[in-house]
Amino acid sequence: MITLTTNINSVKKFAVKREAFIYYIFLAVLVFFAILLHDTAFLSLDNFMNIVRQTAPITIMAVGLTFALAVGHIDLSIGSVVALSALVGAMLLQTTGIPIAVAGALLTGVAVGLINGVLIERLQVSSLLITLGTMGVVTGIARQISGLESVPIINSDFTAFFGAGDIFGIPSLFIWTIGIAAIAYIAMKKLAFGRHLLAVGGSPKAALAMGIKVTRIRLYALVISSAAAALAGLLYAGRLHGARYTLGEADLLTVIAAVAIGGTSLFGGRACIIGAILGSWLMGMINNGLILSGFSTNEQMIARGVILIIAVAIGVKELKNG
Amino acid sequence: MKSWLPFKSHALTMRYLFKGLLGYILLFNYAANAVDIQQIHQAAQSTDVTVSQAQAADIKAKQLTAALVWHGSSSWVSAVTRGAEDAFADLGIKVVAITDAQFDPAKQVADLENVTALKPDIILSLSVDGTSTQASYRKAISGGAELVLLSNPIPGFEQGKDYVGIVTDDMLGMGKAAATLVADAVNGQGQIGMIYHDASYFITNNRDQAFRQALSAYPKLNVISEKGFLKEHETSNIAAAMVLQNPKLDAIYVSWDTAAEGVIEALRSLGRRDIKVITHDLGINNLLDMAMNGNMYATVSDRPYDIGETMAKLGALSTLGHQAAPFTIVPFDTVKRNNINAIWQQAFKKPVPKLLNQALTQ
C-alpha cells in the first residue's frame, strides 16, 4: 500500500514537473529577448498585446487540439477547418446577420469533427489517416466554394467582435483567448469530463472498465478540436476583414509544436491547457523577437530553431535540478 | 550594463555575436537570376502580337491541341487561363489539360509527364522551379510541342529552339510605378517602410529591386526600415514590429496584394489609419479597403487576361514558324480609388464583384 502511494505521488510529481517545463522555457526566451532587445519596444505592453493578438487563432486551435491529444487522437484537419469555417462565415455574412454566420461557421467545424470521430470509431483506423483524408476533402471544398477568390467582410460589428476591435477597452482577441482558455481549463481540470478524457487517453481499456463511455468521449474531443478551429477561422476572418481558402494552412505544425512544448503528450493521457496557451505565446514571442531584432528571413529561420532547442534544453535542466 | 567588448552594452555585444554566428552558418547566397534583366528593356509589347485572318485560317486547319501547366491556382491564374482559353477557342485550338502544381516542383514534374502523354501541340506554362522541372519540360517538347513560358525562365533552355518566348509583366515599369505612387501618397516627402519578398523569385525580386532603385530618385523619401518575408502570413507580424520600432512611418510598400492584407490588418489593429500602403496586383479585400478610404492607397496591376491571350497567340503563331521575341511584356495600370472599376475589368475581363461595386458607389 505504501509502495503504491509512493508511486502515485511520484507520478503526480512528475506530471506537475512536466507541466512546469513550459514556464521555464517561456521565462528563458523572455529573458533572452529582453536582454537582446532591451533598446527596442519588445518589453512594451503594446508589443505583448501584438503577440497575443497575432497568436489568438493559434492559441485557440492549440487549446482545441489539446482535447483531441488528451484522448490519444491527432487532428490534422484543423488547418483546413479554419479556412472552410471562415469562408462559410464570410459568405453567410453577405446575406444574413452575425448570429447565423457565426452559427454556420461553428457548425461547419462541429460537422467535420463529428465526421472525423465517427469515421475513426467506425473504421477503427488511426486518427492520423482519417484526419489527413478529411483535411484534403475540407481543403478541396474550401477551394471549390470560394472559386479561389477572397470573400470580403464589411460588417464592422463582426470585424470588431472577432477581429481588431476592443470590448470595454480590452482587445477582443485577448478576451477570446482568455475566455476560451478559462472554459477549457475548467472543463479539463474541474469537471468529470476532463478526468474522463485523460482516463481514455491513458488507457481506453481501463476507462471502459470504469464505466466511461470511451467512444463518446473520443467523439466529443474531436468535435471540440474541430469547433475550436472553426472559431479560430472566425477570428482570422474578423482580423483580415475577409476569408480565403489559404487561411490556417501554415498553422498546423505551429499548433502541434505549441501544444507539445506546453506539456501535452502527443500520445494521450496527459494534457495541459495553460501549457498550450503559453506554448503558442512562446512561438509568437520568438517570431516577434526575431523580427524586432532585425535578422534576415533566413537568419530568423535558423535562430527560431536554435532558440527552441536551447530553451527546451534549459527547461529539461531546470526540471532535473528541481 | 557596460560591455567588456567594444560595443555599448552586453546586449549589443550579444546581438553582434548572434548575428556573426548566424552569418557563419549561412554559407550560401541566393543565385542571381538566370536571365539578364537588361533583356527586359528590349522586350516586345503584347499589343504587337497579332494573328492575321490568313494565319488564323492556317492555324484552324491544323486542328491543334494545347495544355496549360500552371504553378498554382488563384484568381490571377484563373484570369490568365481564361485569356488563353478564349484566344485558343478563336483559333480552333482545343485545350486538352489544365494542371495546377500547387507550387510544388515534384507535382509539376508529374503534371508535365501526364500532359506529355496527351501529345499537345502547344504548352503554356509557368515553371515553379526551372532546375528541377527542366528534364520534364525537355521530354514534353521533344515530341514537338511549342512551349511558351510565363515569367520564369528555365536554366539551360535556348529561346527559339527549346521554347517560343517568355511573356511577362513589365516588372521594371511596375516597380517604378509603385515608387511614384509612394511619393504621391506622402506628397514627395516622408518615412517609408519596405516589406519585400525574401526568396529567389524572378518577378517579385525584379519588381522590388526596380522599386528600390526608383525610390532613390526621391531625395526626401527615406526608407527607414526594410524587412523581408517568405510566406504571406508573416507580413502581419512584420508590419506590427516595423510600426512599433518606427512610429513615424508614413507609408509601407509590400511586394504583392495578398501579402499586403496582413499589413493592412496590422495597421488596423494598431489604429494607424494614417499609414498608407502601396503594393502590386489586384485583390478584392485590399480594393475594398481602398474603396472605403482605408490604409490601402494604391496598387500597380498587371493584366492577367492579356498575359494568357498573348501566350496563346505566340504558341499558335509558332506552329506556323513565326519567331517570337525573347520577352514579350504586357502593360500595367496604376490603380487608385477612382479607377478601380475600369482597371478590374481591364485586368480580369469580367465585372467587379458586387460587394466592391457597392463600396465604390457609396
Question: What's the arrangement of secondary structure elements?
Answer:
The complex is a heterodimer of chains A (322) and B (362).
Chain A: H1 2-36, H2 45-70, H3 78-95, H4 98-123, H5 127-146, E1 151-152, H6 156-162, E2 166-167, E3 170-171, H7 172-190, H8 192-202, H9 204-209, H10 214-240, E4 242-243, H11 252-261, H12 273-292, H13 297-321
Antiparallel strand pairs in A: 1-4, 2-3
Chain B: H1 10-25, H2 38-41, E1 44-45, H3 53-62, E2 65-70, H4 75-90, E3 94-100, H5 105-116, E4 122-125, H6 130-142, E5 146-150, E6 165-169, H7 171-185, E7 190-197, H8 202-215, E8 221-229, H9 235-245, E9 251-254, H10 257-269, E10 276-280, H11 284-291, E11 296-301, H12 304-318, E12 327-330, E13 333-335, H13 340-348, H14 354-361
Parallel strand pairs in B: 1-12, 2-3, 2-4, 4-5, 5-6, 6-12, 7-8, 7-9, 9-10, 10-11
Antiparallel strand pairs in B: 11-13
Helix pairs in contact in B: 4-12, 5-6, 7-8, 9-10, 11-14
Low-confidence blocks of residues of chain B: 1-8, 20-34
Helix content of chain A: over 70%
Largest interface: A-B, 45 and 52 residues
Percentage of residues in helical conformation of chain B = 40-55%
Kindly report how far apart the N and C termini of chain B lie: 58 Å
Question: For the residues shown, what is the average pLDDT of chain A?
Answer: 88
Number of helices of chain B: 14
Principal-axis shape of chain B equals elongated
- The total number of structural domains of chain A is 1
The helix count of chain A comes to 13
> Going across the major beta sheet of chain A, what is the strand order?
1-4
Radius of gyration of chain A: 20 Å
The overall pLDDT of chain B, averaged over residues, is 88
Instruction: Classify the beta-strand content of chain A into a percent band.
Output: under 5%
CATH superfamily of the largest domain in chain B: Response regulator
Helix-strand topology string of chain B? HHEHEHEHEHEEHEHEHEHEHEHEEHH
Distance between the termini of chain A: 27 Å
